[in-house]
Give the backbone structure.
Amino acid sequence: MEWKDVFYAIEDLFVNVLFVPYDALRSLELDSWWAANIMSWLFMAIGFIAFLYWMKELKTFNDNNEEDRSQTSHSYLG
C-alpha cells in the first residue's frame, strides 16, 4: 500500500459516501431555493441557539460574581 492509495481512499470516502446528502440537496436547487439551502439554515439555527446558551451561562457566572475581574487575574496582564 502506497501513500497515494490512502489519499485516494479518503477522497473516495468523502465524495462517494459523506457528500451524498449534499448531492441530493443540490438537485433540489432548481425546484426550491428554501429546500436547497436547508443545511445552511439548520447550521445557522444551531449556531444561534449555541450563542444564546453561551450568553445565558455567562450571565449566570456574572450574577454569582464567580469571575475574577481584577487586572492581575492572569499573570501576563501584570
In short: The chain has a mean pLDDT of 84. The chain has two domains: 1-31, 41-66. The longest helix spans residues 38-63.
